[in-house]
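Re: fe (ii) ion structure - here you go.
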Amino acid sequence: MTLRSWFATPIYAAPLQPRGGERLRADLEDECRRLRDFDAAGRRWSARHYPGGYTSYASMNELHRFSSTFATLERRLLPHVRRFAHELAFDLGGRSLQLTDLWVNIMPPTAAHSLHLHPLSCISGTYYVATPRGCPGLKFEDPRLDRFMAAPPRKASASAARRTHVTYPATAGSVILFESWLRHEVVANRVDAERISISFNFNWA
Ligand SMILES: [Fe+2]
């Protein structure tokens, strides 16, 4: 017999820079905290839609256009996104991948981000700015889960490739990329310190 697995779901993880990324990470951390102080509209929106935390998702979501620090992050993200698109065998038909949105997320203790996906994009991802020890990672869901119907649950001993969820640790200075339709969540932060990340969407245009 043969047994092969098909329809794989690639997820990309790498340090943003092999070395020397600490200066940019520290500058970004500074800007993220200042942005929260400055962005009253974002704080109001977050109070209703991002309980306990702050996100600039609905108020300032093109930060790469307005800040040279975030523009530097965009430049450093691009090679990763191109490599991921290459691994995915994307045929862009002469178009190119463009960063459309880039926003800040600050999760103090208890803040959580429930299951969601990123519509109207093809590649999404997160760069980690501050990840206190023990803070939650990024949890992905098997994209076929809503079709499992009567499928039995998997054994606790199931291999990684047979499981319905996988959690990537959040590591400051690193980037995680995934196709935008892949649902994911961040469970509640149980650590007494702020977890800071910068999320983004790429589309092909
Ligand atoms: Fe997300």
